[in-house]
Structure formats: C-alpha cells, structure tokens
Specification:
Blueprint: E1 2-6, H1 11-22, E2 26-30, H2 35-47, E3 49-53, E4 64-67, E5 72-74, H3 77-82, E6 86-89, H4 96-105, H5 108-111, E7 115-117, H6 125-132, E8 138-141, E9 146-149, E10 155-161, E11 165-170, H7 175-184, E12 188-191, H8 195-198, H9 203-213, H10 215-224, H11 230-236, H12 239-258, E13 262-264, H13 272-288, H14 293-306, E14 310-312, H15 314-322, H16 332-337, H17 340-343, H18 351-354, H19 357-371, H20 376-389, H21 393-396, H22 405-412
Parallel strand pairs: 1-2, 1-6, 2-5, 3-10, 6-7, 7-8, 11-12, 13-14
Antiparallel strand pairs: 3-4, 8-11, 9-10
Helix pairs in contact: 4-6, 9-12, 9-19, 9-20, 12-19, 13-14, 19-20
C-alpha cells in the first residue's frame, strides 16, 4: 500500500509523513511549489528524511531521524496521484476545494481512490463532489489525528495522538477501501453518517469566538512580544467567553436534534446519567488494560463507534478526547482550565478564524437557518470577523446557497 500526502509543508502533513514512514509504509508526499513548499521539499530531499520529535509519552515512543527509504517527496502532483492507493489532504479546510480541483485536473477521478480530508470541518463533500463528481469516495475526519507542530522544515513534532476520532465514509467507499482505512487509522471510529463529522466540528466551537472576543489582547500581546495562552487566557480565565462558546455549542446540538440525531449535553435533555454509566464502564476497562496500548486503542475506538450516531457537547468531547472527566453542571471555562493539553501555552493561530469561520461557523449558521434553529450568537461572531478583517466569510465560505434543504438533510443523514 502506498499513501499519498497532499501538503507535507503543513504541520499535520509532516506529522502524517513521519508517522507513516516510522510504521513502514511507502509514502509519496506532495507539496505545492510555493517558496515554503520548495524549502521543505529540498530540505527533506537533501537529508534523505526528516526528524520526528516526540515529547515524553506513555507509549514510550522516542524522537528519531526517519529515513525516506523507498518513499519520496515531490512537487509533481500527477506522479503522486498516479502512484498511490489513498490520498490524505493535510491542509486547512479552506484549501480543500483547490486541492481536489488540482487532483481532478491530473486525473484522480479516473482512479476513484479515497481522498481523506483531515480535518474536513463542516459540510465538505457536497462542495468537493461538484468538482470531482457525485459520490466520489471521500473520508472526512472530525479532527486531525495529531496535536502537532512543525518548528523547522526538517522536523515533525507530534505532541500527542488523539485518543479517538470520528471519520465519515462519504460517497462510494468500497469494502477493500474500508479495510485499508481500518488498517491505516486504527483509532478512527468509522461512520456512514456525515453529520457526525460536520456537527462534531469542535474547532467551530472553540476557535472562532475565542479569537474574536480576545482579538484586541491577542494583537496587543503579539506586538509587545508577550505570550497569550489561547485556551488558558482566552477561555479559562474569561468565563464570559466560555458562556458564548457554550451558546455556539448549543446551536450545533439543536441542529442535530432537528435532524433527528441523538445528542449528549443538549440543554433540557443532557442525558448525563447515560453518559456517566458509559464512561464509568470505559474507564474500568481502561484501568484493566492500562499496560496494553493496542487494547486501549481498540476499547476507545469501540466506545466512539457506539456513539457514532450521536453529537456530543464540548464538555463531553473533552471527556472522550482528552480524558477530562465530565463534571455535571461545570462550565466550559472550568473544564478547559482542567485540561492538561490546554494548560501548556497554546499560541493563537490566525487560521482559527480564517479557516474555522468560513468552513465551520458559516456552515453552522446556514444549517441553523435552514432548519429553523436560533443562531444569533453565530451571526454575531461572523459579523465581528467580517468587520475586523474587511472580508465576507459568508460569500467565500460554506454558505450552502447552492444546495436545497432536501439535498443537505439527505447528505447529513447519509441518505445520498
């Protein structure tokens, strides 16, 4: 099996490259011929590989230099598309349509190999199918599998792997391709319901409002050379921001309810008793198998697959993703403050708004209006973004204007 990675100049692209080289797969990594892309390409070529950095971790995975071996990196997109069995698009979601269009131009549509959007954000495939053809096999990840950085062109820093995540199989994904996906992504809980990735887009909840409601302080500290810890300073220390995030969170849960999809954390019907029973059972199994990472991964994936017809609140997402035990009645700000991953300084990234608003919050607003769900809070944050950056995220983003309500509802439910 040969894995194609579109975007090895990105943080996650290099993480995918290093991780799958270590696992022994043949990989063809592609980078666009930008100045940065050429720098990464030339550096990896000259070294014959790249450095994988891993902090101390429970899996005892060590930092190491990873050789390319029989794998390669290239700026020849047609070569990559022609010689791989699957393609991971490791770019911000605002570039997904461009990437799919470029791959379509060099003939990927003839091969019908799966394209993985990592992550896809919300309501991605209908836009991709307009380019590459209806029901072309697309796999949408709810989140990037890694918490990662790329501090230098030759370095992939994988801070941690996500415990589990949802991947929706969209279009005509055949059994052989499903088996391949299970092999490549053992922590992914596969579903055929696109709403599970579109609505479990947690970046649309955490990133957009946090950035816009803290933007003056973010810009002041940046100019002064001071650190702004995105989650600690922006959410944990500002309960009023956390309250806005909870309102956005409730919008997507109300959308799920309108679609007939079960939820956890919906105001008025949080189903906390069921969640408590499920997670208590999960933690008991985890304790029993604490020394076997493969069994732990299987347990967590099976738990997520059990939930694969549910949309969960941000607090419940923190529980299953980062192991931050749900405390009933706790605010989101308080839960963020207890999350070890977020307690380390996390620098605000402009893509938190330039990506997550057009492909996340705009889609939430459009879906809410389509389904009769109140979404004033989404509208307010989008308007703030448009005014501050002199842009129109609704015009350029996933506004769903080209699709009927029937088409979108059928897509989200997995009926088409």
């Amino acid at each position: 099996m040969t894995i194609g990675i579109y975007g090895i100049s990105s943080q996650s692209g290099r993480a995918f490259l290093a991780d799958y080289l270590v696992k022994g797969y043949r990989v063809i990594g592609y980078t666009r011929p930008t100045e940065h892309g050429k720098e990464v390409l030339d550096t990896i070529h000259n070294l014959g590989g790249l450095y994988l950095e891993r902090p101390e971790n429970s899996n005892n995975e060590l930092s190491q230099f990873v050789e390319l071996g029989e794998s390669t990196v290239t700026a020849d997109l047609e070569y990559m598309v022609t010689n791989v069995d699957i393609v991971v698009v490791a770019l911000p979601s605002t570039f997904h349509e461009e990437a799919v269009r470029q791959m379509s131009d060099v003939g990927i549509w003839r091969r019908r190999i799966p394209i993985i959007l990592s992550p896809s954000r919300s309501v991605a495939s209908p836009y991709m199918w307009r380019i590459i053809g209806e029901r072309y096999p697309i796999v949408c990840f709810s989140t990037c599998p890694y918490s990662c950085k790329a501090p230098k062109p030759e370095v992939a820093l994988i801070k941690r792997r996500k415990r589990t995540y949802i991947a929706s199989l969209e279009g005509d994904v055949n059994k052989k391709q499903v088996d391949m996906l299970r092999d490549l992504f053992p922590q992914a809980a596969l579903t055929t319901v696109p709403a599970l990735t579109s609505l479990n887009n947690i970046g649309g909840v955490f990133h957009c409002a946090t950035y816009m409601l803290n933007i003056d302080e973010i810009e002041r500290r940046k100019a002064a050379g001071e650190v702004f810890s995105f989650y600690m300073d922006g959410i944990a220390a500002r309960p009023e921001v956390g309250e806005v995030l909870e309102q956005i969170d409730q919008v997507r849960l109300q959308i799920a309810k309108a679609l007939g999809i079960r939820t956890f954390g919906l105001k008025g019907n949080p189903r906390e008793d069921i969640w408590r029973k499920l997670t208590n059972g999960l933690r008991a199994l985890e304790e029993e198998s604490a020394d076997d990472i493969d069994i732990l991964r299987r347990i967590r994936k099976e738990f997520t697959e059990f939930l694969d017809n549910c949309v969960i609140s941000a607090q419940h997402w923190l529980d299953i993703t980062y192991g931050v035990t749900r405390i009933e009645g706790e605010s989101l700000s308080e839960a963020i403050g207890r999350t070890p991953t977020y307690q380390k300084n996390s620098v605000p990234q402009l893509r938190y708004v330039t990506e997550d608003i057009p492909t996340g919050l705009v889609a939430f607003e459009a879906l809410a209006k389509m389904l009769g769900v109140e979404c004033e809070v989404c509208t307010r944050i989008i308007d703030m973004y448009n005014e501050h950056f002199s842009t129109d995220a609704r015009k350029t983003g996933r506004n769903l204007n080209d699709f009927s309500k029937e088409e979108i509802v059928s897509y989200l439910k997995g009926s088409i």
